[in-house]
Amino acid sequence: MENIISVRNLTKQFGTFRAVDNISFDVAQGEIFGFLGANGAGKTTAIRILCGLSRATSGTGSVAGCDIMTQSEDIKRNIGYMCQKFSLYEDLTVLENMELYGGIYGMHRKEILAKAEAMLTELEFWHHRHDLVRSIPAGWRQKLAFTVANLHAPKVIFLDEPTGGVDPLTRRQFWGMIRRAAAAGTTVFVTTHYMDEAALCDRVSIMVDGRIMALGTPEALISKYQVRTMDEVFRTLARNAVRNE
Q1: Is the pLDDT score of 226 beyond 60?
Q2: Which of 146, 16, 198 lies closest to 207, judged by CA?
Q3: Please, which pLDDT band fits residue 94 given cuts at 50, 70 and 90?
């Protein structure tokens, strides 16, 4: 399939510290790609570059057809982003959040309302559209945040530890949403510390001290390292890390 993300020899230097060290990889359209690494591995820095929020020191790459060095604003228009710590504005209602984010991405109000109704109805949450986000349980906030990130039909959604702090049932439901988005053609680029979630990805990479030390399907990596689970693969590689955040 066509690659929606392509990176070659990407490096990010902060003074004498090399946060991202000459990494290269591709991600296909519609792929669920797990981007793993222990604290301090460099994955957050790499994600910021791919999202157009930071500039690489050297290397080349593209996201959704946009050059990471020269088209950062174009990248932002073609991606969705969701993280664990910040999702929606708690003092706004569900629908007001969707109107706000849709407007930021240049959608017309009529289009926003139509998509909001369709997406919230699918979630069986349309009757809560006027509820303040602060009154909604944490698990529902995460599912709504993913829905908002997907509102403008981005080519790529970046998910930075999206299920941290939610219960196992919500995590399973959330991954059902991820699989449906990928099946519809959206590429999902996800970081997680849950190795059972990593096993659900089409492929995963594992960073150690700024470098990608493993890349492949979960099954292939389990076989390569002659272990039983992705957790054991991760521990085998991460134990060699020198630096910490």
Answers
A1: yes
A2: 198
A3: very high
> What pLDDT is recorded for position 26?
98
List strands edge to edge, sheet with 3-14.
17-28, 3-14, 58-63, 66-67
Start-to-end C-alpha separation, the chain: 36
pLDDT at 245 over 60: no
Give 85 or 146, the one with higher predicted confidence.
Answer: 146
* Pair 84, 161: CB distance under 8 Å: yes
pLDDT beyond 80 at 139: yes
- State how far the Cα of 45 lies from the Cα of 126, in Å rounded to an integer: 37
Confidence of residue 86 (pLDDT cuts 50, 70, 90): low
Helices 168-183, 138-149: inter-axial angle, 10-degree rounding: 10
